[in-house]
Structure formats: C-alpha cells, structure tokens
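Weekly structure sync, notes
Attendees: PL, DS, HV (note-taker this week)

Item 1: Winged helix-turn-helix transcriptional regulator
DS walked through the input record. Source organism listed as Rugamonas rivuli. Sequence as pasted into the shared doc:
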Amino acid sequence: MNELDNLDRAILAVLTRDGRIPVAKLAERVGLSETPCTRRLKRLEQDGYITGYRAKLSRRAMGLGVLAFAQVRFSVHDRTLADRFEREVLAIDRVISCHNISGTADYLLKIVATDLDEYGDFMRDVLRTLPGVTSVESMLSLREVKPDDGLPAY
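Item 1 (cont.): predicted structure, written out as tokens:
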C-alpha cells in the first residue's frame, strides 16, 4: 500500500460521509481537478483503502427494533471447532458483525432482530446451537449514541 497524503485522506473523509458523491463534486471539495482526483480515487481502490461502496440502511425502517451484543464462550478451545463456528456465523444475516476477542469471552457478536421474542428464539434455536458454544451473555442496546459510520480517515 502507498502512503496516504493529505489529499488522499481528504478524499477518504468525504467518501465516508457521501459514497455516492460525483467525482466532479469530490474533486471540488478536496481542491483538485477531476482527472487527478479520479486517478487518486482509482489508486485508493486498487491499493485496498476503499474496499467497496454500499447503502447504509436504517435498522428501524427495516423493522429491526432490537440491537444486541452477545458474548459467546467456548469450553473447549479447538481450532477446528472455532473454524466451524466462524463459517456458520458468516451465513447468519442477523449477525451483523462477529469478532474473536480476548478476555472472558471468545467472540463478540452484534445481532439485530425485529423484537425481543424473535431475539429470544434466535438465541435458543440458532446461537446456542452453534458448534462449540457453551454459554452466551446478551447485552441489549437501549440507545445508540454513536453509530458505526465507518473508519475515520486519519
């Protein structure tokens, strides 16, 4: 990867707020003409700084009123079991992020559900039945103070 300069960082900062901005407007915002801005944008994509573009969906508008975090623990720490767990988690749409963590738990999952009943069913019928899982501790989000809007462009 190439080193980022201030113009690259400015481009990334604008794109994190508006990924659909036309190149002409992006160039104007960062103080470049279109051609050099386009070149930088393509390089940022090719170098892996920009991994894709997507729409940010409203959880509430999608009918997903529950946001939960689940700490998942294993009693046996076996690589094959962990690999199976991770493969299965990747296929579950309700799990919107999964992190292998340090501390008393093995994984931290961010999960969405329509309501508490559906979340309870998901816990009983899906999460607790995954390979290796021996215990799950849930924490429900009462209010989202700062949403995940992507990485800052330092």
